[in-house]
Amino acid sequence: MKRLTALVGFILFAGFFAVHAQVKVTGEVVDDTEQETKLAKASVMLLRAKDSILVQHTRTDQQGRFSLLRPDTIPYLLIITYPKYGDYYKTITAETDVAVGTVRLSNVSQLLEEVIVTGKIPVVIKGDTTEYDASSFAVEKNAKVEDLLKMLPGISVDASGKITAQGKTVEKVLVDGEEFFGNDPTLVTRNVRSDMVDKVQLYEKTSEEADRTGVDDGQRIQTINLKLKEDAKKGMFGKTEAGGGGDTDRGFYSGTLALNKFNGSQKLGVFGLTSNDGTVSLNWEDRDRFGFSDLSTEVSDDGSVSFSWQGDAMDYWNGRGRPRALSTGVSFADAWKDSKHKLNTSYKFGIIENEEESTRTLQENLLDAVLNSNEESSSKARDQKHRFNGRYDLKIDSLTTLTLSLGAAAGNVESRRSQETNTFDGEGNQINDNVANQNMQSDNQSIDYSAYLTRKLRKEGRSISLRVNGNHNESKGEGWLNSTANFFALDSVSEIDQRKTMRSFGNNFRTSIAYTEPLWKRLTSSLQYEFSRGVSSSINSSFNQSAATGEYDELDQEFSNDFDFNTTRHAANLSFNYRSDLFDANLTNNVRHDELYQVNNYEGMDLSRNFITYNPTVFFRYKMSKSKSVYFRFNRNNNLPSLTQIQPLRQNTDQLNIVVGNENLRPSQSNSYNLRFNTYNMLKNAYMYVSLNWSQQFNNIQQNIQIENGRRTLSFANLDRVANTVSLWTGLGRDLLKKQKVRGSLDFDGTYNNYFNYINGALSENDNIDLSLSLNFDRSVKKGFDFSIGFRPGYSLLRNSLQPDLNSNGFVYNSNANLEYYLPWKLKVYSTINYLYQAPTKVFSEKFERFLWQPGVTKKFLKNESLTLNFFINDALNQNIGFTRRQNASTLVQDRYNTIARYFMLKVSWDFTSMKGGTE
Fold first, then answer.
1. How far apart are CA 784 and CA 11, in angstroms?
2. Which member of 163, 463, 620, 745 lies 3.0 to 4.6 Å from 213 by CB, making a disulfide possible if both were Cys?
3. To the nearest 10°, the Cα dihedral for 538, 542, 548, 549?
4. Shortest CA distance to 798 belongs to which of 894, 693, 699?
5. What is residue 193's DSSP assignment?
């Protein structure tokens, strides 16, 4: 790491002298006829004369003055532009500072018969849109759009493909104004050649709600639109990859085949994948690239739009165990009749098998004692699933749009788990132990559906919309439980030998109708009514072995239950939206009537409760400029208790931890406050942001704990203490060495979480504090030496009021580096490094230290460099150990688990395409 630090210092030192070796170009811009009129905010650009590549860009100040740096002494072209004025051109050849003096621009109305030759302008700002001329920026041969974006002022792309433009994350990349391959930016940027692109446009896109209703809801999505050259939308692209290797115990393999064929808006994608190296699905960019996105959108009660990921174990590995995966799928999308009809469907099948071994150390803090537990467990699981998703959009007429969505899934899960637990008091005396083995098998299925109809009415801003959505899910299975627990203080043994059956299902339905009405030019109102109905059921049965027959058919009613839980909601929203160039505001008033009805079928008991709640939202945003804004949101919400929290049942799957429901739970309330400020300077490619969040939980539903002879009984209850969470995120970043494309950023994160529960009747106050400072440097130009280096020191505090001296406070340090060096002959050597250190604490006396290093080398073949050979060693120092440390109320927990460690692999991949690019 010392070498990395020295390298960064050298780059910064060299860059300091490089900057001071540059010379200045200065001047003043005025109106030709009224020279006392200074032209503020005029665009000033410096281009290399030989190829028109943009090297510097600035704007004039309020007095019309400008100053920019000239990198070297080769000839440059100075261009000055201003809306509705003729352009100014001047060749700069002098080797010293250049003062161009007063530049007089003529209004186009005065240029009646003059011919103005404007040439090619690299950057043009049109209102809220920044437009880049793609051919004005130099990229390597066969470069992709991602490489082009890295060269554009104000835009950066990190190693994962995440795009940041003017300080904000780009969430959507369009092609000629339309979604081309899906809803993830990298699906275009890593596969489309840059020479296909004519113009790159950057702007903030309004939400789908605003587009469909005509009412601006204030939601904005940072968007890039690629305007293609002619004949650039037909073709095929794909990827095939195969890898093999091993360690001292077993072999490792990975194989992927993906193909996408398209013709205009029509797209057909297929893929297949198998591996045991932790790759359980296409990575997040390839999923969208080939049409298998699991992202969905939802409109909340206050009208805001949220994005959620619908993935599961078939799409993501959590780093625990050693998984084996097989996954395949097909997708189809098309649009016809001028996009009046749009269809998008996909089907996916996958199998995941995993083996996990773990150890857990726990400390439970009591008022006058502590309990220490050690757990060892091993498990094997097999998860198989089919999944289908479909969406159909119909533009009925110019004012009416209908969207229909359908999703379905069916799967099977098999698992075997063995666990051994030992509990000791503070003196080291053993209190109890438990050995449990459990086998389970379940079949699961679900279906989701939705319809969304919007109709714009004759008056601008007036609209009506109707939503219908729902889902049905069902799960059934059976299993076996064998458990033996020894309670040494009681000199007793508890043995369980049972067959288990389980069945659960749920039906949920929601419909809403909303009407929007403009009150005047900048103020609109919206009235919405919602009805929703939820019906769920849970049946869990335990059977003991019959002494007479030997069959497991004797019902154990103590550990069996049959429970129904139904909810009905009527809700009304009245909201007001104010929109102007500088100020946006929203007030949403939400009133809900919730009815909860629950039935214990075994005991013949039922309970019905009703709640009327008010859930307001207040939002405002002040735009100080196009690149600087402040934002505030307040939201109050009432949260209903869940089925698992209220059901009065007892389970014996873990004899040392018994969970008991509470049928008398009340809703909890939460207040959340969010204050944000962000600014971006395009000329310096610099940003800064501050985000402060505070949430309060009233009547918080928390688990209370009663411990007797080492056995924990956990019950849910509403607490009268207010829980608080406060977090602060702030950061800044900018170009440090612009010519060398070196950027730096500094970020601070801090979170304070304070909450309460009762342990053996004593109030326990729990404090979690996490602080971290992050310093990062990066360079990515795909030439010479590229790097991304980060240093992240921090401090973690895990404290409990019952035993404040037995805390788990400690220093935490994380550092990472991605290093790449591009050699001749299409060779690249690289290293990925991660270092983690967690200091010993008063509870966990051992430190944790892990240094992960993955070195590798790649070689590209073929004229278009589409064939790649990659050799790497994963975890070359063999230090990858699964590790977590956390606090759950009064319990401090440390986990260690097996994961994928050192192995070597040789991979060959071929990215093929028949896409046509333009020629200059």
1. 13
2. 463
3. 70
4. 894
5. B
Give 694-750 as a DSSP string: EEEEES-EEEEEEEETTEEEEEEEE-SSPEEEEEEEEEEEEEEETTTTEEEEEEEEE
* pTM greater than 0.90 (yes/no): no
Find where tokens 């063999």 sit. Answer: 878
Q: Are 758 and 800 in contact (CB under 8 A)?
A: no
Asked if 829 contacts 863 with a C-beta cutoff of 8 angstroms, the reply is no
Q: In this predicted structure, what is the pLDDT of residue 76?
A: 82
For the record, the structure tokens of 800 come out as 């409990």
CATH code given to domain 120-232: 2.170.130.10
pLDDT, averaged across the chain: 81
Sign for the CA dihedral angle at 199, 205, 208, 211 comes to: negative
Place of tokens 């995966």: 325
CATH dotted code for 21-113: 2.60.40.10
Q: What is the pLDDT of residue 412?
A: 93
- Look-up of token digits 């009064």: 890
> Are 7 and 42 a contacting pair, CB within 8 Å?
no
Q: Provide the β-strand partners of residue 448.
A: 407, 471
Scan for tokens 């009340």, then name that residue: 666
- Token pair 């440090």 is found at 736
**Does the fold of domain 120-232 match that of domain 21-113?**
no
Q: Are 554 and 542 in contact (CB under 8 A)?
A: no
Type of residue numbered 160 = S
Q: So what's the pLDDT on residue 179?
A: 58
pLDDT at 188: 59
Contact 151, 137 (CB under 8 A): yes
State both tokens at 554: 């004797």
Per the CB < 8 A criterion, the answer to whether 658 and 714 are in contact is yes
Per domain, the residue ranges of the chain are: 21-113, 120-232, 721-858+885-899
In our burial notation (b when 16+ CB lie closer than 10 A, e otherwise), range 178-190 reads ebbbbebbbbbbb
Segments in the chain below pLDDT 50: 1-21, 110-119, 181-184, 187, 282-313, 918-920
> What residue spans of 290-366 are helical by DSSP H?
none
